[in-house]
Amino acid sequence: MSLWLDKYRPTSLGKLDYHKEQATQLKNLVQCGDFPHLLVYGPSGAGKKTRIMCLLKELYGPGVEKLRIEHQTIVAPSKKKIEINIIASNYHLEVNPSDAGNQDRVVIQELIKTVAQSQQIQSSTQREFKVVLLTEVDRLTKDAQHALRRTMEKYMTTCRLILCSTSTSKVIGPIQSRCLAVRVPLPSTEEVCSVLTSVCKKEGLLLPPELAKQISEKSGRNLRRALLMCEACRVQQYPFSADQDVPEPDWEVYLRETANAIVSQQSPQRLLEVRARLYELLTHCIPPDIIIKGLVEELLNNCDGQLKTEVAHLAAYYEHRLQLGSKAIYHLEAFIAKFMAMYKKFMEDGLDAMMF
Amino acid sequence: MKKFSLGDKVNNWVDPSFSDTSAKSEDKQIWGFQSEERRSRKWKEDQNGSLWMMKSNERGPDEPWVDKYSPCSQGELAVHKKKTEEVEKWMRTHTKATKGGILILTGPSGSGKTATVQVLSTKLGVRVQEWTNPASAEPYLSSLSEWRSQGLSCSSQLAQFQEFLLRVNKYKCLKMKGERGAAEKKLILVEDFPNQFYRQPCSFHDTLRVFVRNSQCPLVFIVSGSRSGEGSLWSLFPKEIQEELHMSCISFNPVPATTMMKVLKNIVYMEAEKQSHKSLYVPEKAELEMLCSGSSGDIRSAINSLQFCCLLEKGLCTLRKPPAMSLKRAAALSKQKGKRAKSAKEQEEHQAIGGKDVSFFLFRALGKILHCKRGNGDCPNESKGASGLVLPFHLLQHHREVLLVQPELVVERSETSGEFFTLCLHQNYLDFFSDIEDVDRASEYLSDADLLTGNWMIRHIIGDYGSSVATRGLIHSNSCQLPVGFRPLHKPSWCLVNKKHQDNCVAAQSLFKSFCLTPVGLQTQLLPFLAKLSNPTRSQAQMAVIQDVGQMSLRTCSGRLKLENLRDKEMGQEIEEEEELHSRVEKGLQVTQSHLLTNQALLEEEEVVIEEYDSD
């Protein structure tokens, strides 16, 4: 039994539920049988990957859906072995080069070279190029991105690249200019609702519109999240009730509690407790930058307008340091300590003002 | 033996400062399990005084004072009375019984472990059989065939050790002529462990088990608890084995300064009396005190340096100070003209003569930073005069009394990496702060320190600055330091957390790769919801990861993270640390690469490399 997410994923450009004009544009793009390198970007859960797979199906036919997972070992010039997972069909292959860490340049060069150098067997009936889909391009090192730009030009005849990333800000200019950029925005709340309703209908369930609305709001318009939430609701209680609790990931609840703990008391002792909670979050594989983002969101809800800009500034400052430094806990804790000190001072000042 | 005469000749024109040790080792018995050891032989000689006199005459003034004045009675031992009594009690009970036991003596080198055993064994009339590793004393075999026939037979140190234990246990000693009889009672002393045991402690444990099963005489192990020795103690004698075999463990402390002073004074007195005809430099009391403090509780090294000191003439002694160094120190210290500066200078000078590097256990080093001591404000004039400035009014909040510790020195002496030290500080500093604003500043300094050490390429240059920022920042930001009393210190949990984070990420990615999700999407979106969906088709391993990563217990605050107390005498060298370092190197590499390569200059070069690479 697969997840609803995978079960009801649209498989062709025509069946996509939203951003339909973009879908037709993409259809027109591959109509002529060729297309430039693509850079597909947009927030998580907007349907980038779905769109790309639909595009590939349009291009190559149903053969692209026969996927296999390969485990490939690439030997770097320094004789270091890099192991990487590749998802491939006969026509394309999908790689997340950032899995290789700082050796991602080698992965890109080596992999694309081998793909590009092997010609398609029956070029008369098939396309004469293969497609390489690179995910998480924004997490590539600069090194790898420059290697990528070079490779892009060199193997243009036999290989097309589709790059998938959440934002273009970390993709270097030369790559952006060599690709056709396609932005996939988040679906609107109504669109999420309609997708949820149609999925439930296919499952033979009745979804009250209020619940659909509630789910789509809680999911932050992230369709992946919305579908998972909906399925979790189904497990929790069926038939659905309109005012049912929408389950959230445990870590988000935990993070919210942590933020409340910070706001409710500001003392070294409390910081110690918060630190233990941060460690707990980290062991549950929540990346530190997501922790800091989540905290800021919760903290901003709790503080006064004057403080908001300062808090946001602090968060940005320490998030940057997080990327530069090596041990995340120092920076997370420094952010929280700063916030505590600031908040405490603000509250005390407010109290003094009330007294007089 | 030719070598000896040559050595004697050489002695004519080079005056040896210490006795010829090679001669001593040469005439040792060849076999590994010699019945007596160098010192124990002397003990026997001690007993009939004439031999002793002759011996000392023969050795002359060149004999190391450590051997010359080694203690011969319980009173002379520079060990606490309670300790010796404890050992004596053990020895008494175990030599009487037919079944032997095992005793482990630990402690820093030069704390009198061996001397205690020797003294007590003579007192109790117990014969000491000592094991020394045979490797260095193996007979030189001239021909290859001889080597083959004999080399194989004596190849295994392990086998020899086992045989030694067995034989000593079983057989009595041969009675030699002139030896005093009635040395029925025996004691086996092992100070020198066969090296193989460090690699395979299991075989050692098996040997011990066999020994304990049919032992008749007590066995004493002496583990020199220098910093590395402490580690070997736990690998050779883990707690389980200690309990299983009913071992007793007595640990010695470093010799306290007062006791050492007494010993040194005694030696100087005796030496001066004996060699009144010779021009012996008698060190002053202050110098003796310095020797005591410099040797950090190691009485052997203290006596050695005392002898060395006395050999020098007075003029020589002052000459030996490295002038450049003392000048630099003086320059550095010239700003503060207090008493302290002078004493510090003296100490520095002394250490040129012969002292030990002082090192702290991690626990103590952390304590020195966290409960940092400052000068009391008794002499404000002096401190103001020394600094020459008084802070302006708006900066008065940053005024602190003069520090009595030098943080860089503490970090250096803690014998851990600056980063690990900073991690330890970070783990523990919150307990010592009472004001959140101070914490705010301290945490900022820690964040800065991490930034400094983040870049692996310049870490070896700048790493020390990182720890300096962390320690000094921490000390300075604690504005209202209260005497908090004893606080338990904990090991940093970051290493463990980081390792677990990475392990979990890798496990999650490898198990759920069929979902084709990015790691972040997988960990923050899919897994938490999978935990909420009861899905029976997952494999066991997948279920485990879902349970572990996706679910969080919202009730308990920190159920899983247990704090591990830092033991009193523990070193910071942890396995996690190395792993952690490794992973950080990789991450650091990534960061720096991305930084570096924004430089246009490097871009060009990079392109060339790529082309070369592609062309093959």
Automatic annotation (TrEMBL), chain A:
GO terms, molecular function: DNA binding; DNA clamp loader activity
Entries under SMART domains matching the protein: AAA (SM00382)
Keyword Nucleus: yes
Domain of life according to the entry: Eukaryota
Compartments it resides in: Nucleus
Entries under InterPro entries matching the protein: AAA+_ATPase, DNA_pol3_clamp-load_cplx_C, DNA_Rep/Repair_Clamp_Loader, P-loop_NTPase
Keywords tagged on the record: DNA replication, Nucleus
Domain AAA+ ATPase as annotated: residue spans: 34-190
Gene3D superfamilies per UniProt: 1.10.8.60, 1.20.272.10, P-loop containing nucleotide triphosphate hydrolases (3.40.50.300)
Quaternary context: Subunit of the RFC complex, an heteropentameric complex consisting of a large subunit RFC1 and four small subunits RFC2, RFC3, RFC4 and RFC5; the RFC complex interacts with PCNA. Forms an heterotetrameric complex with RFC2, RFC4 and RFC5; this complex has ATPase activity but is not stimulated by PCNA. The heterotetramer of subunits RFC2, RFC3, RFC4 and RFC5 interacts with RAD17. Interacts with CNTD1; this interaction facilitates crossover formation.
Family under the similarity heading: Belongs to the activator 1 small subunits family.
UniProt function note: Subunit of the replication factor C (RFC) complex which acts during elongation of primed DNA templates by DNA polymerases delta and epsilon, and is necessary for ATP-dependent loading of proliferating cell nuclear antigen (PCNA) onto primed DNA.
Database matches in PANTHER family: REPLICATION FACTOR C / DNA POLYMERASE III GAMMA-TAU SUBUNIT, REPLICATION FACTOR C SUBUNIT 3
Designated name of the protein: Replication factor C subunit 3
Native species: Xiphophorus maculatus (Southern platyfish)
Lineage: Eukaryota, Metazoa, Chordata, Craniata, Vertebrata
Automatic annotation (TrEMBL), chain B:
Biased composition (Basic and acidic residues): 23-47
Pfam family name, one: Rad17
GO molecular function, a single term: chromatin binding
UniProt subcellular location: Nucleus
Entry-linked InterPro entries: Checkpoint_prot_Rad17_Rad24 (IPR004582), P-loop_NTPase (IPR027417)
Region described as Disordered: spans on this chain: 15-48
ATP-binding as UniProt keyword: yes
A biological process from GO: DNA repair
A GO term from the CC aspect: nucleus
Family (UniProt): Belongs to the rad17/RAD24 family.
Protein name: RAD17 checkpoint clamp loader component
Organism, as annotated: Xiphophorus maculatus (Southern platyfish)
